[in-house]
Predict the 3D structure of the following.
Amino acid sequence: KILLLDESTSALDTQSESIVQAALDRASIGRTTFIVAHRLSTIRYADKIFVINGGKVDEVGSHAELMATEGLYYNLVKRQQQKDDENETIETEADATVVTNGVFKPELTRAFSIESRRSEDIDLRRKSSVAIKEKKESPSLVRLLGLLKPDKYLILLGSVMAFLMGLTIPAFSIVFGEILGTLSQGSTDKIQKDVLLYSMCFVAMGIGTSIAAFLQIYMFGICGERLTMRLRKMVFTTMLKQEVSWFDERDNSTGALCSRLSADASSVQGAAGSRLSTLCQAVSTLGAGVVLALYYSWKLGLVIICFIPLVIASTYFQMKIISGQITKDKKSREDASSIAVEAISSIRTVASLHQENAFIDNYSNALEKQFKKSKIRAHLRGITFGIAQSMGNFSYAIALLYGSKLIVDQELNYGDLFKSVEAVIFGTAMVGQAVAFAPDYQKGRVAAVHIFKLLDRMPKILVNALTGDKPTKCEGNVLRGLSFDVQKGQTVALVGSSGCGKSTIIQLIQRFYDTDGGEVSLDNNNIVNLNIPWLRRKLGIVSQEPVLFGYSIAENIAYGDNDRKVELNEIIRASEKANIHSFIKSLPMGYDTPVGDKGTQLSGGQKQRIAIARALIRDPEILLLDEATSALDAESEK
């Protein structure tokens, strides 16, 4: 039995740490326990302590033995005790607000005030933002086609080619009918001459068809990919512009948003992309076929046309079956995606707990529900699709039977019979092919509903700036009549136990959320009335858990100011202020060193100092430090 504790209490306050540490002490009874600790009080009673310095073991012994040697461990303990004594002094004061001389040089005079305007408590609640919920509605065809407007000339050319492709089938039926008519009568020389002529017509149609098919697929293929690219950019841009509380919604989890971004954007092609070419081709084929059938024999044409509504009806029922379940399938896919994202992003925790099979089972169960429902729908779709496909054979049989009667009655000749029958039958077959794409079309319509709802959604904090509504709330009273001022050049410290609202104040200043009462003011201006991008450009933030991107150190620091190109000398100055320059220069690649996904190649202290440099690169007028050193050891914190 082995218990591994990797800085398990580093991010906790003193009170929470004592509670958690007591639980860990009980859990370690009877087990071999390995502890990696920044807070040395958690290892005071360890049987053996290894002090590591520069990648090597510097000291070994118990707490008492190491303290007696007065070496590196002794210095670390004394330094941390001094820090803890200072923290206890601060926490025991009646007023938990400390004001000292400023450490940054803002040009604006500012005063933050969070004041209660009425007797009720300030109620900060994260109100459930209206997530994208599925409704029985469809986007207008005009708006769907409007998505293709940037490529209208390509669509026009592709549609013309699709219509020409559709006309080749009635043309084929005409030539085919002429050949059959020629073979049924006439001399051998005439038959040979006419067949050669019509064979050349087939060759010409083959060449024309190949060119038209290439242009049709090429044009619509380009338009479809461009459409997907535009939609993904639009959706991603809209997502990033939503208020923070929108991302707190369960329906807007990371897995769900990634699924929408990848699947919905490409699915819209089924309603407004490449499937249009099939529709154009089917319309031209069927339309020309009906005209030819009525032209050569209106009686036979009417008989054949009677089967067209049956094909359309089977198409309609198939789409009804599909549309009722697409939304449920989408929800199942998003649930499965959320499980996968959670497992992959936390793979170290999953592996350490040996819970791989548990996540596999959860993922399989999420897919199994959709699979069982899909099997039932597959039978229904198979029936409707089979009926649609069989209509061609049924109509062919009845058309030939009735056509033979017309020939016997001398109302129709042999060649015209096949011209009429082949034209409409092939047209019906094209409709059947269009039916095959009905699932893609319906999925595209549903995906378009999701995308349009997201694109039409205005971030609620932006709405608040216009209407005065305060939509972003969370359950429970977090702040209760809190009020304080900060003057130019001052440093204000907020201390208190976990959950008392310290980080909430930081989020209010950044305007991630709005209050239900009171206000946050900058230069006596309510920040609700200020431009949000302008406000946030004035702020620099260093959080307890720094988030680094999978790029180089220089790029991560430069991300602190995206309004301009940040020069390397500015990055170096910010790194020197953050006390990270020497470490970066010691790396083989220096500032070009990749930090890994989420900064996994760096230690906690190194990531935190890079985050500080990133905050300083924009020369912020207001610097926000949200427990920036809570998870660091004494050396890194210094």
